[in-house]
Amino acid sequence: MTQKVNESCPCTLYTKVCFYGKIFSISMSVSGENSGGTNMERQSVTMKQRPETERPYEKCLKAGAESLTDGELLAVLIRCGTKNYSALELAFALLDRHPVYKGLVGLYHLDMEMLKTIPGIGNVKAIEILCALELSKRLARASIKEESDFSSPEYIAAYYMEEMRHLCVEKVMLLLLDGRHRLMKEILLSKGTANSSWVPVRTIFVEALRYEAVYMILIHNHPSGCPEPSREDLVITKQIKEAGELLGIPLSDHIIIGDKCYTSLREQQMM
User: Fold this and answer.
1) E strands, the chain, where?
2) Top-confidence residue, 194 or 215
3) What is the pLDDT of residue 40?
C-alpha cells in the first residue's frame, strides 16, 4: 500500500511504502516533464543494533533452541542478511511468501524459484532451505522403525504423512510387500494435477512381478487436505484389486493421505 505524506516542496514527492512489514521512505525529485532519480532510504534495525534478547544466536545460547520462534530458527539457518535486510527480516519474508499457506507449512510449498524471489535469497540459501526441509521429512520417517508391520493402515499413513500432505499435486505410489508385510520397494507411479492423477495399471503388475511381491498397497494424497475417496479412486481400486486376485498378488489396501488425516479403503470396507 502506498500513502502520500505532507509535501514541503512542490518538486519533491514523499511516499511511505510498506514492504514485508517494514516501512520504507522514498523521495522522488520531480522537475518538469523529466523527473529526477529515485532515492530509497530504508528504516531498518541491524542484528547488532538489536538487544541481545532479540538476537537469535545469543537467545539460543542463553535459553536453548526451543526458545526461538519459527522466524528466529529460520534466521539462524539463513545466517546472514544483505545490505538492506537482516537475516531475521529475510526469515519473516520467507514465512509469509506463499500466497495461501503461511508459516512453516508455507515453506513446504515453496520451490527454488519462489524462494529466490525474496531479496537476498540466492541459489545457495535456497538450496540450504530446501535441504533442511527434506531433512525434516526424513527425520519424521526415521522416528518410525523400519521393520514395522506395513499391514497397519495407521502406521503406513504416519510413515508417509509428512512427505505427502504438503504436496500441491496428486502423487500415487505403489508399495510392494513381502509375506511378512515388510516393505520391499516403493515405486512412484505418477504425479498429476491438483485434483487428479493417472495410474498406469500395467506398470503396477510389471513391477510387482519383477520384485516378486506378495502383497501390494496403493497410496496417494489429496492436495485439498480431504482424504475422502473420489469415484475415480474407487473405480481404479476395484480394477487393480480384481487383476491382483487373478495374478495371485492381492491389493491389501488403498490409503489416501489428507492434511493430518487419512482414509483406508480397507478399513472403511470400500474395496
Assistant:
1) 2-4, 12-19, 22-29, 38-42, 171-177, 183-191, 215-221, 251-257, 262-264
2) 215
3) 37
